[in-house]
Design goal:
Blueprint lengths: L6 H4 L17 H17 L1 H9 L3 H8 L3 H4 L14 H12 L3 H21 L2 H12 L5 E4 L16 E5 L2 E12 L6 E7 L10 E7 L5 E6 L10 E12 L3 E2 L5 H37 L1 E2 L2 E2 L4 H29 L5 H26 L1 H4 L5 H8 L9 H16 L2
Helix pairs in contact: 2-6, 4-7, 6-7, 6-9, 7-8, 7-9, 9-10, 9-11, 9-13, 10-11, 11-13, 11-14
């Protein structure tokens, strides 16, 4: 056996061998959809994933996204030309896409899930036709605009973007930061304060904002340690004029839209962590079978095989939980505490799995010759974005009081 395992050789089966083609807790149709997406990703995403990351190439990422036309309308209702598949199918897609490129999955999620989801739930038929159809056919890209420089974990309490009503329009002034797709989006599901005489959660409104509006400016794209190639931007709004018909839901009732959107976002990000953890596990597993030390494969040592067993347990149990939560969301249940729980546990587990995968592979895993260092860099954001792990634990503690009382 060679001193090192060649990744090109390892990659022959990478992504397809360690996970069965059929999982018993999915239907025949769901499993077939998974394999269809996996094969599409193998052909279209795998060849460019490394380049997107190394070059921070958002143009290539967006171009690849637009090839995803068969899947961009996955949750968009059939009444406006979508597939109407629901949350579960979206999580299957999220896992498979992220197994190849977290950056591309992030762009997809912000557009086809986080922007589209609130409009599906709260939009008028006219809004759905106007804004969801081009998202679904890949001619437009969406984003969601919540976080501000003064916000962070206190996203609502720190919201300062003002929307002042003037006749049949609102005038918007303020900034947003860390907005995925901010510099490439055509539309943003944007949250702003419309009544500053009350607490922010009582005076917040959701808008459908078109980025060709005069006064809109992309200040910069951040350079992050992970998810490179996924644009994440700081935005400025100066006297931006938004028509009243672009209010999503009702004035001063944006909290309903935001909370619904966050449940959807956290479920989708959970599927992303699954894909990332799975890829790290698969590389480590294959390497441990083929790498020889002391005249035995690494896998034959319990210190390695037990570590891989722990990885498998975390991935399998988390996938079952994500699947059940997605089914419950599709059935209309309120599972806010469960969503927060799986998002937190899975993001923590993914960081550990990517770290342990590097440990199994050793020095080569720390190098850029294997993708494990990319997975490790990508994984950390899971404990921060869509609500930090600390905020999720606070949310769970609050939900427990609501469910069971003091």
């Amino acid at each position: 056996m060679e001193d090192h395992v060649n990744f090109d050789e390892l990659n022959v089966e990478f992504g397809y061998s360690c996970m069965p083609d059929r999982l018993h807790y999915f239907s025949k149709e769901e499993n077939e959809f998974r394999m269809e997406v996996r094969n599409w990703c193998r052909e279209n995403v795998e060849p460019v994933a490394e380049r997107i990351d190394r070059e921070r190439n958002k143009e290539l990422a967006v171009a690849t996204l637009k090839k995803m036309k068969p899947y961009l309308n996955i949750i968009i209702p059939k009444e406006v030309g979508g597939l109407g598949k629901g949350v579960l199918y979206r999580t299957i897609l999220g896992e498979e896409l992220t197994a190849f490129s977290y950056a591309l999955a992030g762009i997809f999620g912000a557009s086809s899930c986080l922007f589209a989801g609130p409009i599906i739930e709260f939009g008028t038929l006219e809004q759905k036709k106007k804004y969801l159809t081009p998202i679904g056919d890949g001619t437009k890209i969406g984003a969601i605009g919540i976080t501000e420089p003064s916000g962070g974990s206190d996203a609502i309490g720190g919201m300062r973007l003002q929307a002042k009503r003037e006749g049949d329009h609102y005038i918007l002034n303020g900034q947003k930061c860390y907005i995925t797709n901010g510099s490439v989006a055509d539309y943003i599901c944007l949250y702003a304060i419309t009544n500053n005489q009350v607490k922010p959660h009582q005076g917040m409104t959701a808008f459908i904002f078109e980025t060709d509006t005069p006064g809109f400016e992309v200040i910069k794209d951040y350079k992050h340690m992970g998810r490179r190639g996924m644009p994440n931007s700081k935005l400025k709004f100066t006297n931006c004029k938004v028509p009243i018909e672009n209010v999503l839901h009702k004035e001063n009732q944006g909290l309903d839209v935001l909370l619904f959107g966050l449940d959807g976002e956290r479920t989708f990000t959970g599927s992303q962590y699954l894909g990332l953890a799975r890829s790290a596990f698969e590389v480590a597993y294959r390497y441990s079978q083929r790498r020889e030390q002391f005249k035995k494969s690494l896998y034959s040592f319990e210190g390695i095989s037990f570590k891989l067993s722990e990885m498998y347990m975390a991935i399998e149990l988390n996938r079952i939980a994500v699947t059940q939560i997605a089914r419950m969301l599709d059935e209309g249940h309120n599972v806010r505490a469960s969503v927060a729980a799986i998002k937190t546990r899975l993001s923590d587990d993914t960081v550990k799995i990517t770290q342990d995968a590097i440990q199994v592979v050793g020095g080569l895993g720390y190098s850029e010759e294997y993708p494990l260092e990319r997975y490790y860099r990508d994984a950390k954001i899971g404990q921060i974005s869509a609500g930090t792990s600390e905020i999720m634990r606070y949310l769970i503690s609050r939900e427990m009081i609501r469910m069971w009382g003091k």
